[in-house]
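Aim 2 progress update. The chain analyzed this quarter is reproduced below.
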Amino acid sequence: MVELLYGANDFARIADREIREGRAVSLRFHGWRRPFVHRLLARYAEYDRLSQRGTPPRPVSLGLAWRILLAPTLFGLVHQARSSGMGLVVRDTGTTLEVRLEPSNSAPHRDGREASHSGRSSSAPARGRER
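Predicted structure tokens:
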């Protein structure tokens, strides 16, 4: 796992490469960024929870969109990791905030088709296959 300080030289390039190769990445936040990023990720978690039940309310979606504009690099990395099947773990120690993007067996952000084909065989024939 690579540990990177958010805002360090080339941290986004390094994190991007590690995520593409399927390796875990840890981002650390200090100072004024720690509570700011913690609130951003709390809003993201609320949006994610509501979107699993259906379409989230418009104020939640717009609130998250405005906050993503304040930290585009972080949310770009989070989106890339979640799209690759990685999980997001947040730890707040009081002085630092650690955001870990790590591979997981159960990707929480898969769409219905991928979730239905993960490891379970179906007795129904696949579309396009002749019997």
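Residues 106-131 have pLDDT under 50 and may be disordered. The chain has five helices and four strands. These observations will guide the mutagenesis experiments scheduled for the next reporting period.
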